[in-house]
Task: structure prediction
Amino acid sequence: MKKLVSRIFGLFLLSASLMVGSVEAAQLPDFSDLIEKASPAVVKITAVTKAREARQFRQSPNDQLQDVPEIFRQLLEQHQVPQREHGSLGSGFIISSDGYVLTNNHVVSDADEIKIILSDEREFDAKLIGTDERTDIALLKIEAKNLPQLNLAKNEKLKVGQWVVAIGSPFGLDYSASAGIVSAIGRNIPSEHNYVQFIQTDVAINPGNSGGPLFNMDGDVVGINSQIYSPSGGSVGLSFAIPSSVAIDVVSQLKDKGRVDRGWLGVVIGNVDKDLASAYGLDKAQGAIVSEVFPKGPADKAGVKVGDLIIKFNNQDVHSQADLPRIVGQLAPGTKVTFDVIRKGKRESLTGTLEQLKDESGALPAANPKNESKTTTTDILGLTVAPTDARDKERGVQVLSIEPDSAAQRAGLQRGDIITQLDFVDLDSLATYSKVVNGLPKNTAKAIRFVRNGTPVFRSITIK
Result:
């Protein structure tokens, strides 16, 4: 028995020794040299926005002051709030020895004064060279020479699991460093623009880190820290950085022109789910579906039709709706492009020339159910519809009512929607609509396009 216990104890000691050896062989990286070399080129940014006019506590008799006791109300009514300044803190980094500084657009947007503080405590007034809201990048300039600078990596070459380091001023705490790993690359975050595929990390990023650099282990800047996801406002291990490859092109244009020019295709697009992909004869969801074509725009001139599914653009696969704006936005106006679409089950190649992106909403007037004469009875889709009239910009049929638990309700249609296309057939009249509906098979997903409050939408609809 003693021999057995002795052997077990010996095996335990051997196992512990091997574990210690493995830990020593796989030591965590030392970031101290990287941080020491990079920190002098990281800056703290204070953006000051002045109040446009003094505000008064005095308001109308119907406001909240009527509930304040008289003795206090008289004091409040006589009191004027002096003009105040609102400041925001952020980070940035120097990209040239003559004083160009990179940061986030949201750090300096609407600022009246921008101050930059260097690691040696020198303070400069910064000039705003240009901003790009779509990528959340801003370029600043200070009057100084022989400054330390950081290099933007031309090709990030990042892999999930690689170490990265951030330096910035979280909550105003200057030159704080944090480290973590790359959690994901090419991350699309739903937004108004969708021009950036973010680098996701678990690096501790907090308010004040915005605009600061994200480094690889070689000390090159691979990203600009831009966003965090947090229900509390603090770091929960979900931070997002703009890839340096995006910043390089933006910086070049901001230096030259003070603005960024992007290509424009002239379409409104929607996403594709599994059922809608099935209606196009695809075995998986992919591409961006065209729900609106701007008249006389590049897409219109190239022959793009409503209902086309764009699956490839300039030799790049369009995996989802978010991919197309990014691909098009990386190209300059005037660029000749080729792209593949699926139209009524067949693949076609189109060519066109991009124009310059403009800030136009392209929204259509809201559709209102007003023509309730010449209606149909409830059809196999569960709809009662009426034709649109000359006052409607969209041609089609308007939804007057929807049966519960019908194909239309499952597809998400609502009263007031204008159905313009069904199974890739343009609905130019009530007769066309009825003909298409009566020819629809059961248990087969078909594409349906409708306009709701001026916004075109594509869905799939299935009769059971």
Summary: Residues 383-461 form a domain with the Pdz3 Domain fold (CATH 2.30.42.10). The two ends are 74 Å apart (CA to CA). Residues 52-66, 71-83, 360-373 have pLDDT under 50 and may be disordered. The longest helix spans residues 2-25.
